[in-house]
Amino acid sequence: MFRGTFAVIDLSALVNNVKKIQSVLPQGTKILVAVKANAYGHGDIAVAKAIEKSGSAHMLGLASLEEALRLREAGVRIPLLVLGYVDPLSFPVASQHQIELTFTGSSEDLLQVSQLSTPLQLHLKVDTGMGRLGLRSVSDVLKVAESIHQRPDLHLQGLFTHLAKADSPEDGHTSAQLRRFEEACSALAARGLLPPLLHAANTAAALQRQDAFYHMVRIGIGAYGYAPNADWPPSLSLQRVMHLYSTITRIAWLKAGDSVSYGATFVAKQDCRVATVCIGYADGYPRSLSNRGFAMVRGRKAPLLGRVCMDQLMLDVTHIPEAELGDPVTLFGHLAPDIWNGGALFKQRPEERERWIGETFSAASNRAEMPLDTLSRLAGTISYEMLTSISNRVPRIEISF
């Protein structure tokens, strides 16, 4: 059975984005691609395997040990770094699966870690101004580094920080953070404890702050084709990786005075033609777009009427007379073709459907686009949240060409 709502994940665009970012970095700079939060909603296993196969990144970044273990269980062998907190009691599991960890605790916390049979690689995080995780003082960094150095089963592999305002290049906050990070690096170097991998830059800093490059940069939203700010270098021409589509399941005429959806927040001032679409907030489409969002039908904007429901939303297609039951709807990304394969899309076997979708959307890479950034602003949020909110009941169909 096929509901008619799905996301196309362009893995070729993903790999090309990483390579384009690599092309503007100094030779030898390593890249970590963040695949946390189900690869920003794109599908962690498919994304991780595409990155690993392409050799476009040195490492993948996760938010939790559970996320990293899921990739290992799926056969992903590329180096993994958990960027979030991991309880020291879970260190043996990480070492067994060769998963590198972030450590933000004290020397005393390391005493909880029993002797490990396989050495564990640790990255110390320095809180230079994010106020979230990390060691606050240089003295704490030195103390923990000394404790790690004294244990043969622990290895200090990296030192890093996270920049809070890298997407505001004129703001002095980033420079202040980097100065604090340099202080920690210098102190460790003076003691002979400086690890081989220093990293500070996220996507924004990787493209705008050469003083933040160090040995490795961590790429998140840029890998998926979206800008961290409005000053994104246009010469890179990054490609969107996710494209979200659904289908019209009913078209009906409403008379003046008729209402649409819960709360009757939309009341027709004149007769209008309304299309029901099988996607809602349970799929990750924001309820905050009620009465203000829009989608694309047959290449034209269709305003959203009334409140977004859990499983459905309604569009005004009065001005699109050719719109029909079963037509594609583009929520964001490259515009869909005008019809779903003559309706056969819903009758095909899954493998045939995915092959047709792959062929159709591989050829659609030069189509006009329904911009996610525009929807994000209308919803009062950012593209990161919109992407990661697409729920698991929306099938991801990967294409690569």
TrEMBL record:
N6-(pyridoxal phosphate)lysine, modified sites: K36
Amino acids binding substrate: R132, M310
EC supergroup of this enzyme: isomerase
UniProt xrefs under InterPro entries: Ala_racemase (IPR000821), Ala_racemase/Decarboxylase_C (IPR009006), Ala_racemase_C (IPR011079), Ala_racemase_N (IPR001608), Ala_racemase_pyridoxalP-BS (IPR020622), PLP-binding_barrel (IPR029066)
Family (UniProt): Belongs to the alanine racemase family.
Catalytic reaction list: L-alanine = D-alanine
Domain of life: Bacteria
Cofactor: pyridoxal 5'-phosphate
Gene Ontology molecular function: alanine racemase activity; pyridoxal phosphate binding
Protein's name in the database: Alanine racemase
Keyword match Isomerase: yes
Pathway entry: Amino-acid biosynthesis; D-alanine biosynthesis; D-alanine from L-alanine: step 1/1
Protein purpose: Catalyzes the interconversion of L-alanine and D-alanine. May also act on other amino acids.
Entry keyword Isomerase: yes
Signal peptide stretch: none
Domain Alanine racemase C-terminal: 241-399
Enzyme Commission numbers on file: 5.1.1.1
GO cellular component: cytosol
Active site per database record: K36, Y262
PROSITE patterns reported in the protein's UniProt record: ALANINE_RACEMASE
Organism of origin: Alicyclobacillus tolerans
Gene Ontology biological process terms, A to Z: D-alanine biosynthetic process
